[in-house]
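Onboarding guide, step 5: your first structure request.
Type a short instruction followed by the sequence, for example:

Predict the 3D structure of this protein.
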Amino acid sequence: MKNTFLILLFAVSCVGLAQKKTQKFEIQKSEAQWKKELTPEEYDVLREKGTERPFSGKYVNNFDRGIYVCAACDNLLFYSDAKFHSDCGWPSFDKAVKGSVIYVNDSSHGMDRTEVNCAKCGGHLGHVFDDGPTKTGQRFCTNSVSVKFIPTKK
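The system replies with structure tokens like these:
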């Protein structure tokens, strides 16, 4: 019984990884290429599904006008008007640009969550929750290191 539980736990935890590895994205690179192009922190989050420490990201309190793009491939992900202050420790948005992200069931760490990945390169951005305070009801909890902010030109 114990062995069956361990095998089941391992299989369930690998589902999200298998979904990402088998899906074809517009941008295809080897892990060696990604390691060469990304900083160690970007690689950890975008390619290994890491998470930056809460309140440590450079965009947590950024409310300037502009756009947020994927740090790995420059895919447009969020407009600044979708960003809101949530006190969760990570930049939060109430909606992604249509078609810019994909959603993957994530049952790691003993939780059922929805992982959010870049639709163009497959990079891990964070998770989306249905507890947002705006009319969309969504809270895209996004790692700062997974995105780049491009300010609106004045």
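Each response can be followed by summary notes, for example: Residues 2-20 have pLDDT under 50 and may be disordered.
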